[in-house]
Write a structure and sequence with these properties.
Length: about 400
């Protein structure tokens, strides 16, 4: 399993994460192509080698021509920019999730609806480039799973469009709920909202550097010099052996019983839960007390996302209570291969356990695109991908 581990030695910001990816071997030209697809006027991406406390690192820099910067954007506009860029499906969806997570954090801080959030600093072109190119960079390096160290926050205050705020900034603090953090030795903002949103969305696990074979180490530099520590972030990329029994983690399970909701409202609630970062959301018909037919709404999520998901369930349904507990989850180790079919290239998701492939199924969205383009039934595109995978697996 190709693994990426972010060592947040002295905090994290979007430019530091992006710089580490470039330093670890992600081609700068590939990321420049991504920036061009975003169609942000007057915006380019540059990178240069710098030193921080005598250590070599890469400083990623988003350059914006004077007069081209647009400071305020709403979430729908940012989602539209990403959607219309024509990026790989996985890259686009992950980038949207990062911004959606950021929007929910900002909404919670200001006590407003997500749709009302004005992205200021994080809505600027440099943040869009940092987030989208980070997702593209991980894909370019072939990283299948991401780990992260505890995240230093810093201390003191930071000045932004809302004035002087404590560190960690309110949005950053919201994003780091349920995540292991440290104060750090430096005074000032070590982890920005963009950095926190990226790591808490993309990382599958937090903790010390796991057993792995390191193939590349990238160092991303922050814009300023650190006072006591080098202002940089490291990225380890390499192979990590998956346990024979498959992968395991812990998920939060949230349940609510509802007997007075329409199918439309519950379907919408599930959509909102998934947009907010739930790993899954589903509805099961049940018979409640007094013989009333009802629905059991269940959401699976990361433990750190429980407060946000609970709040959403209370807001979108009439329930008076949400049950919650943690459950151990055993998972197949997942990876993707791209196969060539008569309808074009389609990715097939493979599930492994004990080193053996036990499941294989083509990615739904790519099959839908291929089927619509060719004017054939969806099942025909899916079967074509499975047949191509079988030929590739079995050989000549």
């Amino acid at each position: 399993m190709h693994y990426g581990y972010f060592d947040c030695f002295n905090g994290a910001a979007g430019d530091m994460i992006l710089g580490a990816l470039i330093d670890a071997g992600c081609p700068l030209e590939a990321l420049r192509d991504v920036v061009a697809k975003l169609s942000l006027p007057g915006v380019t991406l540059a990178a240069e080698k710098v030193q921080r406390h005598g250590l070599a690192a890469t400083l990623a820099r988003v350059e914006v021509e004077p007069g081209s910067q647009k400071a305020d954007r709403h979430l729908p506009e940012i989602v539209r920019i990403i959607t219309e860029a024509g990026l790989e499906t996985q890259v686009a969806e992950k980038a949207k999730l990062v911004f959606q997570r950021l929007a929910h954090a900002e909404a919670g801080v200001h006590g407003i609806a997500v749709e009302q959030v004005h992205f200021h600093e994080v809505g600027a072109a440099d943040a869009i480039v940092d987030i989208v190119c980070t997702c593209a960079g991980l894909a370019a390096l072939g990283v299948e799973r991401v780990g992260c160290s505890p995240i230093p926050t810093g201390s003191g205050t930071v000045t932004c469009q809302h004035g002087i705020l404590p560190v960690p900034a309110p949005a950053t603090a919201q994003l780091l709920r349920g995540i292991p953090v440290t104060g750090g030795e430096e005074v000032g903002e070590l982890t920005t909202p963009t950095g926190a949103a990226l790591l808490t969305t993309l990382a599958d696990e937090f903790g010390p550097l796991p057993d792995m074979t390191i193939e590349a180490v990238g160092c991303g530099a922050g814009a300023r010099e650190g006072q006591k520590r080098a202002n940089l972030l490291r990225l380890f990329v390499g192979e990590r052996a998956a346990p024979d029994a498959g992968e395991q983690d812990t998920v939060a399970v949230l349940e609510a019983q509802v007997d007075d909701a329409t199918g439309q409202s519950l379907a919408y609630t599930c959509e909102r839960l998934l947009e907010a970062g739930a790993l899954d959301a589903y509805i099961v018909p049940i018979i409640m007390k007094k013989g009333r037919p009802g629905q059991l709404l269940t959401a699976l999520g990361r433990p750190g996302d429980v407060p946000k998901l609970e709040a959403l369930i209370f807001a979108e349904t009439s329930t008076f209570g949400v049950r919650g507990y943690e459950a151990r989850r055993a998972k197949l180790t997942r990876r993707h291969v791209t196969v060539e079919t008569r309808y074009g290239p389609i990715r097939v998701k493979l599930g492994e356990r004990g080193g053996e492939i036990t499941q294989a199924w083509p990615e739904y969205e790519e099959c839908v695109t291929a089927a619509r383009k060719a004017g054939v039934p969806l099942q025909e595109a899916q079967q074509a991908a499975l047949q191509a995978w079988s030929r590739e697996r079995d050989g000549p």
